[in-house]
Protein 1
Amino acid sequence: MSWVGRPINRLEDPALVQGRGRFTADLPARHHVRFVRSPVAAGTIRRVTAEPGTRLFTAADLVGVAPIRPMLHKFGYVPIAQPVLADGVVRYAGDLIAAVVADTAEAAEDQAELVALDIDPLPAVTTAEAALAPGAPQVQPEAPGNLVIDARFETPGFAPPPGTTIRAAIRSHRQNATPIEPRAAHAAFDPATGRVTLTCTTQTPHMMRTAIADLIGMAEADLRVIAPDVGGGFGQKMSLAPEFLALVWLARHLRTSLAWTEDRRENLMASFHSRDMEIALAGTFDADGRLRALDADVTANVGAYAPYPNTAAVEPLMSVAELPGPYDIAAYRCRARGVVTNTCCSAPYRGVARPAITLALERLMDKAARALGLTPWEIRRRNLITRFPHTSPTGLVYDEGAYVGAMEAALQAADLPAFQARQAALRAEGRYLGLGLSTFCERTGYGSPAFAARGMEVTPGWEQVELAMDPSGAVEARIGASPHGQGLATTLAQIIADRLGTAPHQVRVVHGDTDRTPYGFGTFASRSIVIAGGAVQLAAEKLRTKLRAIAATLLEAAPADIELADGMARIAGTDRAVALPVLARAAYHQAHRFADLSPGLRESAVYDPSGTFSNACHLAIVEVDIETCAVGIERFIVAEDAGRLINPMIAEGQIRGGVAQGIANALYEEIIYSDTGDVLTATLADYLTPTVREVPRIEIIHLETITEATLTGAKGLGEGGAIGAPASVLNAINDALAPLGAEIDTMPATPRRIHAALQTARAR
Amino acid sequence: MRVPISLRVNGVPYAIEVEPRRTLADALRQDCGLTGTHIGCEHGVCGACTVIVDGEPVRACLMFAVQAEACDVRTIEGLALSINPSCEEKDGATLHPLQSAFIAHHGLQCGFCTPGFLMLAAAVLERDPGITDAALVDALSANLCRCTGYQGIVDAVLDAARTLRHAEKG
């Protein structure tokens, strides 16, 4: 029986449930670091003064350290630089000014609080609108007009045909990915070798090593980066934290070990933000309700700096490329701008721009359905892609999926007639129920060509694996990917176990250590099961071939007759068998017996796929209390197609977690800046991450279209939950409010905003 | 200034010296070396640092270590010891029914909030073994998880509650 496809328990769990996980902040250090941050959104630093005896480091100390300046060679991108510590100018509230080093974390914090900052405030802009206004203060010297990217795309000869033009304008407010583990780093200098070991909360240890070594100007070989257990990332831990770089520099400079853990306020103010976007769509529909042309205008407030490696263009460029979504649209035009402001740097967060573009497109579909007298499902039936492979207007090739099928499955599960009857009955009682759909597809598992198409200097595409069986028969896979909650050690072990005839718990997957693993890019962008999974499968096939050849010699049979199962190599259909450890021992210690094979059992493989599209339909049923304007989610259904599921339990966990974040996006979470650029939501009592009370049980329906676009037949699904959920919730709220004439196209749809929408409707 | 305090953690006596401002969470992690208690927000919202003090679930970031003088503290490292008879052997480790249920119901992903949820659930179930499912879910709303969407956690705790009740009757 195959291990792939089974919901086996995770190999990661026993240690974690016993408190035996090893997280960055668990490491003891000789010294502790506290960063001094800007209290103002913009200003010129005149003086930074510490109490006598304070070990204070500022930009002036970091001689030779280059600023973080990720590059993109397309779309007229304006590269902007972020000094590791502010070099005379601060650009957002939370900007790094100095580092204080002390013997304890408490002493470092005390001394940092006593650092006197003499800053001349400068006028600040915190919204894209303000930053684009004529005469607005310029945030970055390189970016006149505060534009870092103004990307335009149009299909040749774009011209909307005659038809009905429907408009949707959405606003997505700013979010923070909010992993429960704050960011942390520990850098230890080894006087014997001159090397530094950086243990940190990263999703991308190899990329961090390259970037930090480059910027400090040290040999990459002198830096080891370890990602131990990492307490959630969701993208926030994939970008280079300037704090990590500062710690490595300090460890080398002071020849010591140092630790830094951000507090929650720092995380909410000064880690990375996301999703601060406005999108205006104009769709031209023909008489049959078919979307013939789509014209889009996207504005993203990208904050003060650009994250490495993705740059400040990541949200605009994702929007341009993927806005047409799951619909068959021939004519498409898009302008997408990235605007710098005096706010925290924006960076990838689970879904990257797609929660917002899906909201815009799905609101457009519902508005069009209403205008054209169609149901939301009928208009989607007429527009969803049904023929594969499909080439999108921007040239993306969609592999086989179940676009209409997912929607029909969700609708069937929802029992539409029963819902509609109940909705009508409750409306008569003054209760407002609504049903909302979100149909979408998600490009996943894309290799280096996809990043090259954006013009990125770093194209984090391929993954590599080294797979070895040691002389005792134990299997170890060393991967460049860097899971932090996704259960990848389990799913990769399932793939390997099937090919080597062993069991998952006998496979050790090693990740998150640049000394122990081959170069790779890490875990982000719904990529690991596709790309690392494919590489693992290739390496396991090679190892399988070699094991069968060795077994054939030992058993005096043909390699083609050898099967590997239950820890044995057997001549098929006979009882003649040899145990894997015997084969392994022979491969190392009896190499002379296998003249045409290299000694030992070690194979490596690289995989760099072009990418695959998973798809889903989310269906939300909500009730809006029109007195309190609170929204309760009654049911949430996900019908999804992510190809072959390696471990359905883990896949469902990814979906549920993503949907919970999408619901947070739709209803609760918002980073709010004051007009002067202070973050007003700097605690978890103000930034409303949902609890178990706010997240409903999520019903999941799997459709498994086995794709040929990936080696394993699997598609990525890490981000899909977060991408689709907001649109379904907002469509459901709008369905509920429809009889009252109120509409809401802003997320989060807080009670205050719903109240305002109702007031507007009443005033009409 | 450091203050000497003595407390019991997981049944083991500790005599430590702490600054009066040191939180119980920091004292457990740094002075007792028990890093299974995690710190997520330090303002009492996320609950990752939940431990059991004299039978009550407590946010260890909101309690000073000096307040735990002479208290009986239980942390994740001691959870399985607490009700040894019904603990099962799994992969060479002894697990509390809650721990086994978290594994079986995929109640964790990154595992950072997990010790806090386990200690919260253990305290609630010990205080009121007959607690209703609804009240149990309500109690779990004290803590934040960012990975799971909570369903695995709820399923695990409800399942473990049944196991524990059954063990008590048996």
Note: The domain at 351-446+610-763 of chain A is CATH 3.30.365.10 (Aldehyde Oxidoreductase; domain 4).
Protein 2
Amino acid sequence: MAQKEVDKILSQEYQLGFTVDVEEDTVKAGLDVDVLSFISRKKEEPPWMLELRKKALHKWESMSEPHWPHLYYPPIDYQSISYFSAPKKAPNSLDEVDQSIIDAYNKLGIPLEEQKKLQGIAVDAVFDSVSVKTTFSKELKEKGIIFCSISEAMRDYPDLVKEYMFSVVPMSDNFFAALNSAVFTDGTFVYVPKGVRCPMELSTYFRINAKNTGQFERTLIIADEGSYVSYNEGCSAPQRDENQLHAAVVELIAKKDAEIKYSTIQNWYPGDDDGKGGIFNFVTKRGLCEGENSKISWTQVETGSALTWKYPSCILKGDNSIGEFYSVAVTSKAQQADTGTKMIHIGENTRSTIVSKGISAMRGQNSYRGLVKVSPKASGARNFSQCDSLLIGGECGAHTFPYLDSKNANAQVEHEATTSKISDEQLFYLRQRGMSEEDAVSMIVHGFCKEVFAQLPMEFAVEAKELLNLTLEGSVG
Amino acid sequence: MIHIDNLHINIGNKEILKGVDLQLEKGKVHVLMGKNGSGKSTLTKAIVGHYDVDVTQGSIMYKGENIVDVSPEERALKGIFLSFQNPVEIDGVNNAYFLRTALNAKERYLEKKETNAADFLKLMRKHVQELGMSPDMIARSLNAGFSGGEKKRNEILQMEILEPDLILLDEIDSGLDIDALKAVAEGINRLKDSKRTFLIITHYRRILDYIAPDIVHVLQDGKIVKTGGFELVDLLESEGYDAIQKDL
């Protein structure tokens, strides 16, 4: 893709997104202090937040974009991007929506009413989800669980936000985290009090809520001592966004005996067969197992985006704490993914498990990049890593970059890696038993991903399977 | 059941079958023998529609229809089953799940009610026991880490559950110990009836003593050169393929 085209796509947002809106919703392209003030004002933030944003901007200006990932894309002109997008005008009916999206919804079995919600079409009917949401909110409140947007949290729970935001991912952690710290516009905040087990899966979506949260999301989840929470992010339905650049940050903090389970399905628009128009997704996700016996588990199913740069990590500070990373990353068409994890063992007897399944089809390029670091104090630390790659067809690629840094002779670190190809003989065997070629591919792929899907909450797992079928459709034959 | 007429097959650019004429009759057990490289496996591949084979001439009439251009899965759904000489391993795909998917696909094709998971498991357990297989085969990955004998029994298990009409067994007896051979032969005998046709490819008489075939064919250099009864097996066993050669 030529630079000119990228610029065109990036600047399109500015033209299309803002000329129709009233004046006070417009912000010029580019990034400076005025833009931050504008965002902060729009989000009705307390003044201290604006100061933090300015600090982050200052740091970001001194940093440069990382070029070590195994990703190839034209340079991004950060000054041509607009950092506050007002909600786009919703279509009036599904007839105005791109047919390919409707087809995908139907294949995923998303009901018509929900399809309308996903597209932001106003609907008169009263939804179950509305009442469900009210019931949920009440139940959460009774248990003292806070579940709200990050903007609300800044206003209503400033002490919690001040204490924990930037505590796991410092604003200067990396180029994209710094960018996010300066301009983030939305996200989720969760606090689970001591000893409370959150009674339900928390989801950002209820699907309807998914709109306009994508570009610079910031999520902060705190599980206090002895608590448990399972949080689901994303949605299997294909998500389009006119903003090409995404840079999210997620911070998790698990105190003593607490457990956080974080599941993601990512299906941002991957672009056309040449990757044109797809989302560039640069995400920083990190969890801190701060207390003893705490546990953080990341499970991700990544099927979308033209570029994915993402390493959900765990800092295992508390003794006996546990970090887990289960990932399925699919790259098809011209998609590229450089994804993996970091497990930093600091406390004694800390344990981590990494199971990464990369699937490449068509011209997709899939890289696993993982770091296991064991500090001198982490006696008895154990890690097991398994990285498997599956290739479908001859034009795709799989790459594995494992890094190991152990400073404790007492630690045990194991790494296993395999690369396999769906062979013609495997496909033929299944076809000889009466399955179509697509069903055969799907059966082999699901078998390959089984260990990861087993970690997902059930409903999410069903969606993930459907999504995988859809993503790989047409990749054989 | 199947009527093969003047079948020429290329694999790559090499002609392997050079005008095969073969009729397999309903309710009969046929045997196909021949030297290594004579084209036996190629013939089964042609019948099931394997990617490798290129039909350059001739026809394969199955139940009155020329299936040369029919997709492999449709041939399977129409009742053609091949027990592979070397069954592939597919890691992560549960054996029971795989086989139920195959059975349900066939039931859908025949517009029959699909067997549910509970009933299927009962059915599978019964056959696994009859075949003397270990019960953990049910939940293991398809053929992954199976011994040679276990793989062959697993092929027979699939055959018994899918109840095909035309069964091609490509060296089902190779590498089997006495017990496994007996279990496999019994499985085959259980399915023998007046409507079903077998084509057994083998190099050895052993399995045929259990199965008692009706008709024996000898394939040589890409053609069927001899058809007869069990006496052909005796002849080959005692004098080798040269005996046929002399005869021609």
Note: Chain A has two domains: 3-93, 126-422.
